[in-house]
Design goal:
With 200 residues, the protein is α+β, with helices and mostly antiparallel strands. Helix content is 38%, strand content 35%. The chain contains three helices and nine strands, in the order E-E-E-E-E-E-E-E-E-H-H-H. Strand 5 (47-55) and strand 6 form a beta hairpin. Helix 2 runs antiparallel to helix 3. The chain is globular and about 70 Å long.
Length: 200
Amino acid sequence: MHLVSLIPQCHSISFRLLPNTKRCFLDNAQKNELVTGEYSISDSPLLNTHIKVTDSKKDVLYKNDGTKQGKFAVTLDHPSNFEVCFSSESEQKAHVPPGSGHDVSLVIKRGVEAKNYEHLKEAEKLKPMELELRRLHDLSQELVEDFVYMRNREEEMRDTNGINQPMPVYYTLVSFPCVVYWFWQLGNFITCEDISKRRS
């Protein structure tokens, strides 16, 4: 079994799933954070595929057997890791030819990236600027929640190990310039909108 940690808010991966093997991908999500996934699996004779999504308590959030493509959407009721596992097994007493296997592609989005803002635009009849402001608001809220989560994790690790863990500090140093950049982009966006309105 292979285990890979996925950090970005949106990520895509393709891999080869060999017969009678299992590959798992690990990520984390905050409480009530939307996580969506879309996958496709190539067909291979005499082989059956299974996909299962579980949380840190091993509760099954999504499961599908035999399908070649699909989508899933899950929301966790507590901050937790979640795991997406693909497995392949040969049919009983079947001789699997050499080179058999499945080509698998997986796209996972979480948080703001997982939301369908086009659907939100139509449902609430939002203008482009209003939609962008909504997305930036959701993004800033998500960053705040991430900071709170990392601070709580830092306190837990300090209590457990008795030492200050550098990871949350690095996370803050990396994230802060991103926040400044997003607000700078927002300022430019609003300025451009004002200029275009004056010209019209």
